[in-house]
Write a structure and sequence with these properties.
It is a single chain. The chain is globular and about 55 Å long. Strands 1, 6, 8, 9, 11, 12 and 14 form a seven-stranded mixed β-sheet that branches. Strands 2-10-7-13-5 form a five-stranded antiparallel β-sheet, with no helix packed on it. A two-stranded antiparallel ribbon has the order 3-4. 2% of the residues lie in helices and 47% in strands. The chain is an all-beta fold. The two termini are 19 Å apart.
Length: 161
């Protein structure tokens, strides 16, 4: 199928050019709270230039596959993190620009992501659950959103299992 994108599992290595994968894999970096809590320390770089960091709650419509990708966006003045408020997977779409072929990743239900400042990405796309996310990003006076609509949409398809 022309303009088809196959979804791959989200890994820190594959996602590194676009942002950070936030997870709690491996042993914690520190043990705190009298030994009752593991801290997985400093998992993402929050970049907001000369603004402040804000925490918002987003409630997105749950989508299904195949998913029609017709819009990407970027935030030139700050990073943006999506932390799911359920343990359900969500779709993460990134691109090297409006003329590049987008890439699609699927989280494992226990991962969050942080897009680097200026990374072109798809909109919030939960595939199951309640669609609720905590979003950590830039709050400031200047515009921080650019959008691009594809003339011909991409179809995002499930990968081989």
């Amino acid at each position: 199928m022309k303009n088809a994108i196959v979804i791959t599992p989200l890994t820190a290595e594959a996602f590194a050019p676009y942002g950070d994968v936030l997870d709690a894999c491996g042993p914690p970096d520190k043990i705190i709270n009298a030994g009752k809590c593991g801290r997985f320390h400093d998992r993402a770089k929050v970049d907001v230039m000369q603004a402040r960091v804000g925490i918002s709650i987003f409630k997105a419509d749950v989508r299904s596959l195949p998913y029609q990708l017709d819009l990407i966006e970027r935030h030139p003045e700050g990073s943006q993190a999506f932390v799911p408020m359920s343990d359900d997977p969500f779709l993460v779409i990134v691109s090297d620009g409006p003329d590049a072929v987008p890439k699609a990743f699927i989280t494992d239900g226990a991962q969050a992501i942080n897009f680097h400042r200026g990374t072109w990405h798809g909109v919030l796309t939960p595939l199951a659950g309640n669609g609720m996310f905590a979003v950590i990003d830039r709050i400031g006076e200047t515009p921080n959103l650019e959008e691009f609509t594809f003339d011909v949409p991409w179809m995002v398809m499930a990968g081989e299992t």
